[in-house]
Amino acid sequence: MQSEDARYLKRKVKGGSLDVHPTEKALIVQYEVEATILGETGDEMLGDRKKCQKIIRLKSLNTNTDVAALARKVVEECKLIHPSKLSEVEQLLFYLQNRKKASGKAEKRVVKPRDLTPFEGMEIDEEANINKVEEYVELLYEGMEEKVKGATLILHLARNPVNLEELLENETALGALARVLREDWKQSVELATTIIYVFFCFSSFSQFHGLVTHYKIGALCMNVMEHELKRYDLWQDELQKKTRTCEDDPDNQALRKEHEKAFKKYQGLLVKQEQLLRVALYLLLNLAEDTRTELKMRNKNIVHMLVKTLDRENEELLVLVVSFLKKLSIFLENKNDMAEVDTVERLSRLVPCEHEDLLNITLRLLLNLSFDTGLRIKMVQVGLLPKLTSLLGDENHKQMAMCILYHISVDDRFKSMFAYTDCIPQLMKMLFEHGEERIDAELISFCINLAANKKNAQLICEGNGLKMLMKRALKLKDPLLMKMIRNISQHDGPPKHLFIDYVGDLAAQITPDENEEYVIECLGTLANLTIADLDWELVLKEYNLVPYFKDRLKPGSAEDDLILEVVIMIGTVSMDDSCAAMLAKSGIIPAIIELLNAQQEDDEFVCQIVYVFYQMVFHQATREVIIKETQAPAYLIDLMHDKNAEIRKVCDNTLDIIAEYDEEWGRKTQREKFRWHNSQWLEMVESRQMEEGEPFMYGEDGEMDRPDLFYSTDGITPASGAVSPDFFSDPYAQNGDGQHGGGADGFDLTTGTSSRPATGFGFRPDEQFYDYTSSR
């Protein structure tokens, strides 16, 4: 169709159905618009139809409203409703008047971008009409007041999604809006707010993001934010100067009035500025759906600007800022930017707060940040721990608070701090409120972490705490709850002795039919009970555990974790002389050596198996079996110089005891120690002798005839090698490795009731052993 052929445009509106709005006090009018282009002769050249709807909001409708009068007014003012439908309108209004609000507690939700409410200055007497867009555009070329009016009228159209596609096709209007914003945003906050709001309406729909990007509105919003934040700092400085002046001369009424005037002006400016910031940030948040656009924002320092805005008091603005930070925090680079500034410090003042949405989104942001070790430390330093603990009693925020506290509890140095809050009583209450239901993963994981600290374990056991936990764990056979109990059992002192009453119950769980994870935790709990008065022989016999141990020691017979727990358990019961003898007769020692061969690359297995040998050489019945009938001493000599310090420590202690009772193995041990500690010197001597063709200085065992080369010359150590176990309280002292104080992990070689290595890496769960500068 040629444009000159078109002469007339015929537009016809056809009324449709009426209905009530599902949630608001409003009527929905469905109608159809038919547009036809006519030629010179009046013939139809092109036609199109479009279905539309209009929402008539009835804010004044209440129980006292005259429905008949309101219906007449609606029909008179809305040309889309035919007068014949007056009775139908009246009936719908009557329904709205009597409709009850949805019962029950409304679901909490975070404010969404499309919920952006109208702001001060948007009110206008004239009703916007989509057919008058060109007139509104012309106003954008007039003075500032006319520009604001034109932009406001276009905004009223843009707030109705039905009009967006039509506005999209009007490039003149959008181009004019973008130009005015670019040129005049510094001249009028109202104008900038209104125009950005127009483009925000488009940004609420992903398909229009290209349009907003085309006019570079996002970059303009970034500039607006940066400028407004600088203005805010200037206002603050100016206000503080006036405040100080008043404080210096409190009797000067003129200064006081000037300060009050300045403060009122500041408050008015602040309201308008925060309206502008809200609209600009909402638009940027919508555009940030595209990660490439988000990266551009990050390069323009969006994180620092958002963190700076956290000082404001406007809760709606804060909801938006924190939501934006939460979205950004899922990327490492943005999280690092937040770590560089005082993000956590600024967020801490928002916890707790009365605004439910703000508190919820703040907790979600803190949860994202709590994956970083350094930021977790800051959370504790700014006092968030007791604040978060107090939220455990709030049903709406309990889950988020617990997840953050769980992350904090991962760091061993913070575990003890929970003992000084009411956290543990609340957690115990939650545990017992579950009845026979499965405990939430977050709750039980948090409890497992806290139980690894001695002070917390004592609080957990107060009253009937341990009894209730054991009863529940044994009834439900819950492996995670048993893991918590296992952590409690590792602490020396009163908590450990409480377990004497439950040894039989725990031993009864160790059967091939039970779930392996559950059995692992039961075994681990029993293995922690290094109590001198416990009759392990009776336990092993009554519950027939020796055959179970022997079966599980076979490589591949079960998961490695279960086999390892069996080895640890054997190490614990071997402290008892009669138990050790019973195990030796059952043929468990060869099975352990076979397992050592199979698991020689696993430090954890090696360490715990060597510890079993260490325990068994204390008892005469098992010492002879270890020394005479197995190759265990040879394995121990090979492991004397293992890379793992814990393995070396246990090996040295065990070999020292063997050397005291067997001269031959004592000489072999001394020879190996001599060669190791003098290896460089021996290599040098041997190489020189080879070059000069001289015979060796010593024979095969000649160096062993020179006790002064091996033993110290201070007269403390006898050259005979008859050393009692008491001397080797520090296993490294005799090796010339300097002083390694035994401390809590040292071995009491005289009694056999040593604190066994908790792991193959030499730490116990309640010790501060880690390098806390990096994330675990």
Key features?
elongated; 776 residues; single chain; kinesin binding; disordered C terminus; mainly alpha; disordered N terminus; ARM-like; KAP3; 3-stranded antiparallel beta sheet
Describe the protein in words.
The protein is mostly helical and 776 residues long. Helices cover 58% and strands 5% of the residues. The protein has 40 helices and three strands. The chain has a three-stranded antiparallel beta sheet with strand order 1-2-3. Helix 12 (302-309) runs antiparallel to helix 13 (315-328). It is elongated, with a radius of gyration of 40 Å. It starts with 7 loop residues before the first strand and ends in a 66-residue tail after the last helix. Mean pLDDT is 82; it is low at 1-6, 102-115, 696-754 and 761-776.
Would you identify the regions where 5 or more consecutive residues have pLDDT less than 50? Answer: 1-6, 102-115, 696-754, 761-776
Count the DSSP helices: 40
Write out the strand line-up for the largest beta sheet, numbering strands in chain order: 1-2-3
Strand content: 5-15%
Based on DSSP secondary structure assignment, what is the total number of beta strands? 3
Q: Ends: how far apart? A: 72 Å
Rg from Cα: 40 Å
